[in-house]
Amino acid sequence: MYKLRNYFIMAALSLAVISFSSCSKDDPVPEIDQEEYDGTILTFTEGHYHGDEFHAEGDTLQVRFIRGSDRPYPSHVHLHAGEQYQLDIAMFKNGQNTTAEFGDNEHQWFFLGAPADVLDYTYADNRVGFKGVFTVNKASEGFDLQLVLRHGLDKSQASAQSWNSASYREAGGSDDFNKSFELHPVDEDHDHE
């Protein structure tokens, strides 16, 4: 009888220890996803500047990318020579805009593939590129504009100083986004489907 009572006490103590340790206050809290996206929308708004203020006038075009797809929609876009376009890039996850999760100090967009002297770009958001202005200097044949969002780069490096730096990888980091679409800078009277 004495042995049975000892076994019962040991079992009760073991159960208490297991119960106590499983109800610890240190249970992990699920981490909220950050810098996640399943879609990206580029919005080009034609307009001009009055001082520091951009005034939209003319066309507004969008290019949409869906994560997992190699083809943007549309895959071919015309911008007019001699015009400026405000570019706004938005990242989405499950229909929610997650752009604010991409920190200024650790991200930068690069725009590659334009022939010399065809485009200029000015960052409007502390050299990140979610907001900026493209100036279309002249018409040219269509080309693939490659869009690269770099994460964890050293922005003080010379290779990160220019919006179209082909050596952007030398600034370190890794790509969060690397896609392209066909951009065709055209004259105002261009008639092309």
Explain what you see.
The chain is mainly β. 11% of the residues lie in helices and 42% in strands. It is built from 1 helix and 10 strands; from the N terminus they run H-E-E-E-E-E-E-E-E-E-E. It has one helix at residues 2-22, and strands at residues 39-50, 53-66, 76-80, 84-93, 96-97, 107-112, 119-123, 131-136, 143-151, 174-186. Strands 1, 2, 4, 5, 7 and 8 form a 6-stranded antiparallel beta sheet that branches. Strands 3-10-9-6 form a 4-stranded mixed beta sheet, with no helix packed on it. Strand 4 and strand 5 (96-97) form a beta hairpin. The longest helix is centred in the first third of the chain and has 21 residues, at 2-22. It is globular. 20% of the residues are buried. The model is unreliable at 20-24 and 29-33 (pLDDT under 50).
Helix coverage percent of residues? 10-25%
Distance between the termini: 95 Å
General shape: globular
The value of Rg in angstroms is 26 Å
Structural class estimated from helices and strands: mainly beta
Show unreliable segments. 20-24, 29-33
> Taking all residues together, what is the mean pLDDT?
86
Compute the number of helices: 1
Order of helices and strands: HEEEEEEEEEE
Largest sheet: 6 strands, antiparallel
| Number of β-strand runs | 10
Strand content range: 35-45%
Question: TL;DR?
Answer:
With 193 residues, the chain is mostly beta strands. The chain has one helix at residues 2-22; strands at residues 39-50, 53-66, 76-80, 84-93, 96-97, 107-112, 119-123, 131-136, 143-151, 174-186. The strands form two sheets. Strands 1, 2, 4, 5, 7 and 8 form a six-stranded antiparallel beta sheet that branches. Strands 3-10-9-6 form a four-stranded mixed beta sheet, with no helix packed on it.
